[in-house]
User: Which sequence fits this backbone?
């Protein structure tokens, strides 16, 4: 829950959410409720991970699979680089590639339709 202030800043920023399905405003209570739901739901429902930079593990965004339909072998992929210092940098692309590969290999299906 230490990242709640970051997520609030990002998800209440119009430029950050311009191309996301989610459109603010986000309250602290709603963000905590969302994160608690992610922590308690079965992994088969979806997964969300923070994108962190080494060496200090500073959170710069998040990536996740949502609305998983295992039977249909499909899911929605959500990614946001909230820290604008890392927009349009290869850092985000590398994180996307690494995280998406991990999400797919740990899921019950391993391809996009």
Assistant:
């Amino acid at each position: 829950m230490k990242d709640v202030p970051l997520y609030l800043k990002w998800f209440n920023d119009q430029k950050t959410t311009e191309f996301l399905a989610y459109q603010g405003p986000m309250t602290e209570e709603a963000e905590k409720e969302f994160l608690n739901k992610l922590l308690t739901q079965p992994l088969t429902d979806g997964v969300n991970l923070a994108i962190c930079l080494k060496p200090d593990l500073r959170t710069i965004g998040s990536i996740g699979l949502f609305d998983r339909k295992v039977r249909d072998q499909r899911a929605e992929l959500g990614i946001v680089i909230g820290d604008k210092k890392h927009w349009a940098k290869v850092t985000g692309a590398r994180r996307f590639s690494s995280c998406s590969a991990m999400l797919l290999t740990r899921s019950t299906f391993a391809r996009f339709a």
In short: The mean pLDDT is 78. The beta strands are 47-53, 58-69, 74-81.
